[in-house]
């Protein structure tokens, strides 16, 4: 018995000194972090979402002056979220929607409670109606490691270059990684952009773990599908976000493919009835229908699942989008930039030889997944396909300017070339006779 006492004493001393060096564990924080905005689809509104580590009230204080008191208050709710990892880490997601905002006016806000407030952020309320020219940053596949486009996106945001961000799937790599800690780190990284602009999302394959639970919990999109599919209006455009992932992770329910497809058809019907007000229909989904990358992804197969549906014949999206005259289809997944000629069923449908994107006879596809992540860039096949107009294997992101009801401007920014514009096209569609391609 006595022979073990020195070892026991040593262990106690080691533990004591270890705690002295590390300090006692920090109590869970009530201070807000991971602050980001989204547009709930209701004109004159904006939703603020943030995280705390203890359950505290959810409040946003806001006003028009950069300093001094913030005279307006809005309250919301919080929901506990338990990550599916082995540690079962619990965080509290707070959501507050601000309403009655003046269109185009800049607001200053902070979020939190008496137990802790965020710093002050600024945002500009979206303008109302179809008669203005929204500017968007568009990209997918942005990671917590190697987020190459992020510093330039932050500078663009500070200069007021955008009205909203479209993140076309694949976040953090991955939101659930290391018991959700990578997700926490990523949400803090994007805060300088996402707390200043509505950060609109769709799910990608890297969000799949635990039935997309981190994606559903951390973002606040319009509608009632936890951000899997929804639509919203922005200036002269109707924007539809949907999940390509329902076609691949069928163990979460085949019924999701059917439900989403019928919702898409209904939404597209309504959007076509409203073409006189909002002429542009734009979709965003993670995995493309077409691509010319040198890998074995779905888009490299002739009968890709997103394009042709389950078993090549059920709930395919190309026919649906062509039938209802979708103008522009935004994709990611491939870590590169590729612009296609207007296309349907492998047929190039250019407006004319001289001006292929003026009055095109089919939708325009843009694949923009080169914002930067740990998986680096994706190579292309040696020779481009006949339907591929431009391929860029460089880090970067897309700028989308919806000028008016007839003109949309698309640019690709290369981060490798210090912000050089490496693609620059206008898509021009007539206002009259603007419905379906058929």
UniProtKB/TrEMBL annotation:
Signal peptide positions on this chain: 1-23
InterPro entries: Calcineurin-like_PHP, Metallo-depent_PP-like, MPP_PAP, PAPs_C, PAPs_N, Purple_acid_Pase-like_N
UniProt domain Purple acid phosphatase C-terminal: residue ranges: 362-423
EC number(s) recorded for this UniProt protein: 3.1.3.2
Top-level enzyme category: hydrolase
Keyword Transport applies: no
CDD domains: MPP_PAPs
Domain of life where this protein originates: Eukaryota
Domain annotation Calcineurin-like phosphoesterase: ranges: 135-337
Swiss-Prot/TrEMBL keywords: Glycoprotein, Hydrolase, Signal
Annotated Purple acid phosphatase N-terminal domain residues: 32-124
Reaction equations catalysed: a phosphate monoester + H2O = an alcohol + phosphate
Family to which this protein belongs: Belongs to the metallophosphoesterase superfamily. Purple acid phosphatase family.
Protein name: Purple acid phosphatase
